[in-house]
Amino acid sequence: MQRIATVSARVIRRTHALLSGPPFRCSVFNLGFRPLFLLAGAFATLVIPLWLVIFTGLGSAPSYLGSVGWHAHEMLFGYTMAVVAGFLLTAVRNWTGLPTPSGPLLAGLALLWLSARFMLVATALVPVWLVAAIDVSFLPAIAGVLLPPLWRSRNRRNLVFPFILLALAGANLVIHLQALGMLASGSDRALQFTLNAVTLILVVIGGRVIPVFTANALPEIRVRRLVWADVLAVGLVILVLAIDLFPFLYALTGPVALLAAAANLIRMWRWRSLATRRVPMLWILHLGYAWIVVALALKGLAGMVPVVTPSAAVHALTVGAIGSLTLGMMSRVALGHTGRTIVASTPIIAAFILINASAIIRVVIPIAVPGFYLPGLIVAGLLWSSAFALFVIHHTPILMQPRIDGKPG
User: In the chain, what is the greatest distance between 2 CA atoms, to the nearest angstrom?
Assistant: First the structure.
C-alpha cells in the first residue's frame, strides 16, 4: 500500500509540473473556459438544425447511435460536457490556487472533444471502436487533470467532481457498447443517469453561486440561505438519481421528484429571484434554476397526469435549465475571467430571451397543442440555435483575445 501511495504521489507531482508549464502564446488556450465555451457555443448553434433536418426526414442519421440516440448523446456528452469541463477547468484553478491545463495540453483536450464530435457523424469512414474510444476518453482525461490540483490543495469539498466525471464516462461507455452490439441493453438507463447527474451538478453549483452572485450584485436586498432546504434539495435530487437506476423502485419516482421540486422551490424562495428582474446576468441564472423545479415537477406528474409526458420533463431540463444556466454562466465567466465588467449586452439579453422562448415552446406545445408538435419543434430548435449564434458572434473576440487587465488567464 505504501508503494502504491508513493507512486500515486509521484504521478500527481508530475501532472502538476506539466500543468505549471509556460503559457501558450495563443490566448484562446490560456484557460479552460476559452476553447471549450467557444466550441460548445458553436456546436449548440449547428447541432440542432442538423437534428431538425434528420427528424423531418430531409436527411439520414449520421451516426451508428441512430437518430434519436445521437441527438440525446450529443446534447449531453457533446454540448453539456464541454461546458461542464470548461467550467471545472476554470473553477478548480480558483478553488485551489493551482494551475489547470493551458497551452498545448488544453489544446489537446479541446481537440479530443472536437474529434469525437466529427467522428460521431462520420462513422462510415472511421472504425466504430475508435469513435467510441475517442469519445469515452474525454471525461476521464478531464478528471485526470482536475484531480492533482484538488488533491494537492486538499480541497475535499470539490474532490467529488472528478469522480462524477468518471461515472459519466462509464455511462457513456455503456451507450457505445450497446450501439456496438456488445450489450443487449443499458443505454436508456445510462442516458437517464447522465441527465440526473447533470441535474445534480446544476443543483450543487447553482446553489453555491446564484445566491452569492445575487447578494454581491444587489447588496440592498437580503439574500438568505436555508441550510435545511439546501440539504433537502440536494438530497432529494440524489434520491431521484438513485431510484432511476433500479426499475423495481420506479413507482417511487413520481412522489420523490415532486418532493425534490418542492424542496428546490423552497430553496429558491430565499434567493429573492424577483429582485433580479432588472439584472439580466442574474435573472437568467434564477430562471434557469426555476426550470429545474419545473422539470422535477413534470417528472413527478408524468406518471400521474396522462397529458404530461416524460419528454416534457426531459426538455424542461435540457432546453430550459441546461440551456439557460449554461448560457448564463458562459456569458458571465467569459466576461469576468477576461477582466471585463459582468454586464449583459443587448445581443446577450436577446440570447437569454430566445433560449427561454425555445424552452417554453418545446415544453408547452406538445402538452397544450399536440397537433402543432412538429411546427413547435422546428420553431423551438431555431430559437435555440439563434440564441447560441448570438453568444458565439458576441463572445468569440472576447474568448480569443488576452485579458484586458493584463492578468494571466
Answer: 66
